[in-house]
Amino acid sequence: MDSIDRKIIRLLEGNARISFAELAEDVGLSKTPCWKRVKALEEEGVIRGYTTAFGLAELGFGIEAFVQVTIQSETYEAFEAAVKRHPLIRRCYATTGEADYLLHIIAVDMADLDTLLRQEISRLPGVRRTVTAMITREIKGDLSMAAALQQVGR
After folding, report:
1. pLDDT tens digit sequence for 69-80
2. Where are the alpha helices (DSSP H) in 86-153?
3. pTM listed for this prediction
4. Quick one: 18 and 72 in the same domain?
């Protein structure tokens, strides 16, 4: 990865809908070589996709929480499969420490969160224990990969 690739990453991070013509101009290449670099970054797994960011509150989801989950070890495959299918579990990470997993979940309101925790999360395969922490406000939500690469000297 060279400085042009890093610049492509920075520009796409700022606006994933930028045209190839504009991207190419901004990095100092013609359109075709720029397109080839983006395709190579995609094939290498550096760029894994393009997404749209949504305002959760504006969509009616007033609650976000992190749930630490401890499961019976022999049920991890069924647990992970169930998590992948659940639409209100936004992210799931296998972790070290006291809990086996960390879930990032959303809910409409407190009543919805209570139902989600008691009737859905706690009944996922193998769940033995959950500990929930409510998100009260976001301090930092986005990590600039271009800035991270610069910080570590890449």
Report:
1. 999 989 999 999
2. 110-115, 145-151
3. 0.83
4. no
